[in-house]
Write a structure and sequence with these properties.
Radius of gyration: 17 Å
Largest sheet: none
Distance between the termini: 42 Å
Helix content: over 70%
Strand content: under 5%
Structural class: mainly alpha
Number of helices: 10
Mean pLDDT: 93
Low-confidence stretches: none
Shape: globular
Length: about 190
């Protein structure tokens, strides 16, 4: 318990190596026990701390394990949050990232805010792997949700994540246009 508290305090102070160490200790103390909400939350914290430490393997392993738990437990909102975080992280781009996002999409209602968020992350993931046509389709689904539900934060997310892909693909004129739209929306 105290390791978890110390880890969260270290995160609050941006001391990510120390935080990861505390979260590992907290999880180690529960080794052999069945995964529960508390352990899943420790895995999320460890994944985020590891990501901040550029420990991609530990971040991915921890976040995927937490997502699997939340999905099995029926905690859809938490599963979506974890999938979105893992799915929108550029360092975690890999085919299994897109697969995790697709699994999360199967848990939510089509057209919901979660559906939009996950599609925005999926667009980035697919686009960074060179699957630009599929990425554009995912971004279009996310944009549709943002417009229909009038969610400017989601619209901003779609712009931001698609901007990475477009810039990565060296579509520079389009990247400048989207960058200007992103800045304008962020100011609003």
């Amino acid at each position: 318990r105290y390791s978890g508290i110390a880890g969260r305090q270290a995160v609050a102070q941006s001391a990510y190596p120390e935080a990861a160490r505390h979260f590992r200790a907290a999880l180690s103390a529960r080794e052999g026990q069945e995964l529960d909400d508390e352990m899943a939350e420790l895995l999320v914290y460890l994944g985020r701390a590891a990501q901040s430490n550029d420990d991609v393997a530990e971040a991915w392993r921890s976040l995927r394990q937490a997502f699997d738990y939340y999905a099995r437990a029926g905690n859809i909102a938490r599963a979506v949050d974890v999938a979105y975080f893992a799915g929108s992280d550029l360092e975690l781009t890999r085919p299994s990232q897109a697969q995790l996002l697709e699994r999360a999409l199967a848990l939510v209602d089509e057209g919901s805010e979660g559906y939009g968020r996950l599609n925005a992350a999926l667009g980035q993931s697919l686009g960074m792997m060179g699957q630009v046509e599929l990425a554009d389709q995912a971004f279009a689904r996310a944009r549709d949700v943002a417009e229909r539900l009038k969610l400017p934060a989601l619209e901003l997310d779609v712009l931001r994540l698609s901007h990475y892909v477009i810039g990565f693909q060296m579509r520079l004129d389009e990247a400048i246009e989207i960058g200007d739209r992103t800045i304008a929306l962020a100011r609003q």
